[in-house]
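Handoff note, outgoing to incoming analyst
You'll be picking up this chain. Sequence as last confirmed:
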Amino acid sequence: MKIEKTSTPTGQGAAPVDAPAAAQGAVTAVDPRLLVREQGFAGYLSEFKRKMRAGDLGSIPVVVGLIIIWAIFQSLNSNFLTAENLSNISVAMVGTGMIAVGIVFVLLLGEIDLSVGSVSGVAGAAFAVLSVTHGMAEWLAFVLAILTGTVAGAIHGFVFARIGVPAFAVTLAGLLFWNGFMLKILGDNGTINLDSEGLVAQLTSYYFTDVAAAYGLAVVAVAVFFLTSFFENRRREVAGVPSRPLSEILLRTALLAVLALAAATVFNQYKGLPLAVVIFLAVLVLTDFVLRRTSYGRKVFALGGSVEASRRAGINVELVRVSIFAIAGTFAAVGGLFIASKIASANQGAGGGDLLMNAIAAAVIGGTSLFGGRGRTWNALLGVLVIVSIQYGLALQGIASPIQYMITGAVLLATVVIDAVTRKTQKTAGRA
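Most recent structure output, in case you need it:
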């Protein structure tokens, strides 16, 4: 078989193409995203259908599920979608949501952390003992309580990454150890009440009562989103890589504006903008930036995809793993302080009950894959919103806790099934 020569060695003159007709008929490969955007709405519709067939569902199932949940509970009790109830839901979800943010980081590695509930209890107890029992300045006790979670998570990560003990076993041992440690430092009394006007108590009790606060935050968020998207688009255009048309950016901005202003209106109809919600949103923005816009975030996703490939690419696998568990412990401690703030005390029941399962369920229900490599910290917001909405909706109906556990478990199972089916579909479509 004769092979046509189309190039010459380096340093020699370029030889003419032997098959000019074939060269003229060649088609330059075009990024499919460019074709989608050039086709306008029809292109996006076809791309959406293609993603659905390939199992790339994104956050669609949880958003649809949340709408259905709200519609059902509103039909059963007209008080469900009142400003007071929605505001209470938004504040109640922050403690569990903070813990779920840390769980998202761990799940991105394809691992699990069973200790976060106990670590959250230790943080609340440590703050109470230091600030109330020993009279330490609240700000210092607050910092030390958070560092307690960081150290606990780093210990788990070290044993997992350096010694090679499975994360499940390490964190299960941590669950038992830190729960016992919490009971020890709380002492025989078992409950320490916090200052109702103190730093931690204000985390969930403080509201920005001026209506300008909620609306101002909404406007600023929308403006930052638009400017960030616009200049990012300009940068991509200059670099000659696929970018979104201005019409798409405007549409996304308009949707965000509707949601943000609607939330601001709801908050202003009750007590105002909760401080807890502001802090939670700030954490979500910061962690999302870290995961999506930094080299560290790319390393986390790389480890979730393939540990061996990451190691060959020069990533310090052990260091990243230890840091991830330290982050999970830190957010567990922050969540524990919010939970302590909600009940204005630290007690022996802190970190127990269904807290651990709800935190893990929130991350998974929100869209983070149990198999690693796929997820965003915003998934924690969606997931915890689903769980707390179910809890408050059932509470309004006077339904007992056992039924709440059963329903939450059923929702979690359905989400895991969807995740597994999605992963299988993506493999079939060659996208996993």
